[in-house]
């Protein structure tokens, strides 16, 4: 196919033609929307680095869910901000923990909505690390028990999917075993399989008040330079019983999404994290980019790279555009 016989521009002439040959189309069904459940009542704290997002107490979270549910966003991902933090993160596995309370309320009000709970201790520990500390580092095997307890506790509260994000070795297997023993053999695990030690989690750590008080997460989260290792991490999670695998963050790791997509046939999620969201918002607020247009382009790139599910703070805004209630500007 050579010019002038083949002219790529022929099929780009009109929007209708372009839409007929479009290879990837975002859909509201693709999205999972994260929420920050805050202890107490009447809490709706805006998050300055994440415009449009809040820390919400359970009853206000229910209100905030109305639009995403009406728009058909199939799932939410819950994080918790507990009243008290302690060295072992006990709110994460307590019957009356903040996530447990929120899950019960949400499942009661919106039984069809898929509620995914993030299982990790960093939001619940007073030191901000994702596990218990021994000898100044996170102790892997001691942490596994607490993660497994948390997963069971979330499932008992009504969680539909358990999503471990801690990056301890062996946690998917430990959680699977504990869920099965507790009678939750039908509860799927969405594993944060290739989760990188990333600067793009900055706004999230303010939102969840979960920044580590000393050191960093590089002894358990992945080195940003590695993608062979991502395949090893994913294959371990698959062997241990993961039902859905995940790459996180998304945009700086599209190559990893693509490699995982081409190596494994499990459903694949990608997490378009807080810093990716904040960058688009900040540049748009400055008038430096067209925010809606860049948002849709970024989300499309994640799907094009091979993600089946996109966890994103943009989910509601993107849904408004996809459903024709807001227009992406076609100028320029
Ligand atoms: C918990 C967790 C984090 C994110 C999701 N789960 C933060 C971290 O690992 O420090 C980040 C999500 C985001 O930035 O949107 N471990």
Please give the structural blueprint:
Blueprint: H1 15-20, E1 31-38, E2 44-46, E3 54-56, H2 58-64, H3 66-71, E4 75-81, H4 98-109, E5 114-119, E6 133-134, E7 137-138, H5 140-157, E8 161-164, H6 171-181, E9 190-195, H7 202-208, H8 228-240, E10 244-248, H9 254-263, E11 268-272, H10 274-285, H11 291-305, E12 309-312, H12 315-322
Parallel strand pairs: 1-3, 1-4, 1-12, 4-5, 5-8, 9-10, 10-11, 11-12
Antiparallel strand pairs: 2-3, 6-7
The site of ligand PBG has 11 residues, from helix 7.
GO molecular function, one term: porphobilinogen synthase activity
Binding site for Mg(2+): 233
Keywords: Heme biosynthesis, Lyase, Magnesium, Metal-binding, Porphyrin biosynthesis, Zinc
What is shown here, in short?
By secondary structure, this protein is of the alpha/beta class. It has helices spanning 15-20, 58-64, 66-71, 98-109, 140-157, 171-181, 202-208, 228-240, 254-263, 274-285, 291-305, 315-322; strands at residues 31-38, 44-46, 54-56, 75-81, 114-119, 133-134, 137-138, 161-164, 190-195, 244-248, 268-272, 309-312.
């Amino acid at each position: 196919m050579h010019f002038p016989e083949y002219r790529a521009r022929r099929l780009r002439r009109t929007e209708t033609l372009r839409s007929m040959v479009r290879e990837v189309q975002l859909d509201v069904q693709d999205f999972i929307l994260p929420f920050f459940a805050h202890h107490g009542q009447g809490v709706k704290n805006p998050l300055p680095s994440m415009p449009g997002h809040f820390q919400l107490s359970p009853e206000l979270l229910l209100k905030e869910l109305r639009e995403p549910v009406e728009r058909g966003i199939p799932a939410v991902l819950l994080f918790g901000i507990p009243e008290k933090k302690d060295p072992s993160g006990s709110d994460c596995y307590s019957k009356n923990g903040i996530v447990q309370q929120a899950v019960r309320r949400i499942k009661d009000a919106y039984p069809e909505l898929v509620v995914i709970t993030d299982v990790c201790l960093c939001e619940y520990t007073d030191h901000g690390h994702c596990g218990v500390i021994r000898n100044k580092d996170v102790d892997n095997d001691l942490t596994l028990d607490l993660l497994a307890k948390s997963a069971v506790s979330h499932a008992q509260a009504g969680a539909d999917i358990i999503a471990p994000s801690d990056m301890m070795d062996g946690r998917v297997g430990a959680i699977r075993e504990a869920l099965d023993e507790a009678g939750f053999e039908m509860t799927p695990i969405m594993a944060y399989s290739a989760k990188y030690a990333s600067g793009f989690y900055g706004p999230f750590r303010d939102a969840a008040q979960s920044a580590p008080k000393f050191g960093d997460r590089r002894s358990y989260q992945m080195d940003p330079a590695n993608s062979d290792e991502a395949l090893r991490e994913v294959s371990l999670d698959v062997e241990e019983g993961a039902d859905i695998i995940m790459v996180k963050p998304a945009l700086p790791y599209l190559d990893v999404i693509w490699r995982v997509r081409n190596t494994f046939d499990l459903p694949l999620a990608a997490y378009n994290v807080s810093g990716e969201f904040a960058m688009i918002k900040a540049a748009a607020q400055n008038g430096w980019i067209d925010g809606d247009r860049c948002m849709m382009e970024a989300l499309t790139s994640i799907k094009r790279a091979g993600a089946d599910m996109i966890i994103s703070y943009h989910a509601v805004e993107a849904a408004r555009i996809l459903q024709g209630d807001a227009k992406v500007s076609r100028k320029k």
